[in-house]
Amino acid sequence: MLKNWFVVPTRLPLVRRRCHACASERSQASGKFRVNANHKLIDAWLLVLCTDCGATAKLTVLERVTVRSVRPELLNRLHDNDPGLTAELLQDPAVQHRNRIALDWDDAWRLDTGGSDHLDHEVIDVSVRFAARIPVRPVRLIAEGCGLSRAEVDRLLTEGKLVSAARLSGKLSGDFTFTLKR
Ligand SMILES: [Zn+2]
Fold first, then answer.
1. What is the pTM of this model?
2. Which residues pair with residue 109 across a beta bridge?
3. Rounded CA gap, 168 and 134, in Å?
4. CB neighbour list of residue 77: distance below 8 Å, 6 or more residues apart
């Protein structure tokens, strides 16, 4: 039996960064941007709030770039505080690198298995698709999706009854497939 599972975000991830006011390690997106146009140059920031003390911090999105080089669509979305843009920018490797942040996806995603009909089958082939690059433990995912304990999944892996071209022992954040025989 062939199944498609989906790893989907349920909310925005938290931002891992140290708060300058209270040393908390987590911030959350405020949903707002700040845009500053000065002559022909433009700066834009994504505003985040410390989860502990609420202090605001700015993540750089655009830094002194010429207005003409910015797509009008992007400018509109910045001015409109487009929620989809917040999600896109938080996951943008360039934005993460520039601001030295990482994302915390704990409790911010769910697994959608499209029903439980696969539980009755002896052999299932599952294609797991990620709607965002969310780091998850495949063992945990498979345990949850197949109604097994993690120890049972580990045992099936050791016995060669759970096979995949991907490494299932660590964390994955991109599409993979696996076959499970019971
Ligand atoms: Zn703080």
1. 0.84
2. 9
3. 15
4. 84, 85
Calpha distance 126→153 (Å, rounded): 14
Whether 15 contacts 26, CB under 8 Å: yes
Coil/strand/helix, residue 6: strand
Q: How many angstroms is it from 40 CA to the middle of ligand 1? A: 34
Q: How far is the CA of 23 from the centre of ligand 1 (A)?
A: 6
- Output the six-digit token pair for 89: 């920018």
> How far apart are the CA of 10 and the centre of ligand 1, in A?
24
Decide if 139 contacts 177 (C-beta within 8 A).
no
Judge whether 6 and 132 are in contact, CB under 8 Å: no
* DSSP SS3 for 92: coil
Return the H-helix or E-strand segment holding 152: helix 150-158
Instruction: Render pLDDT for 35-46 as a digit per residue (tens, 0 to 9).
Output: 998 889 999 999
Spatial distance between the Cα atoms of 182 and 150, rounded to a whole number of angstroms: 15
Ligand 1: distance of its center to the CA of 72 in Å? Answer: 34
Chain segment 50-64, per-residue pLDDT in tens: 999 999 999 999 999
Between CA 25 and CA 13, with CA 55 as vertex, the angle to 5 degrees is: 50
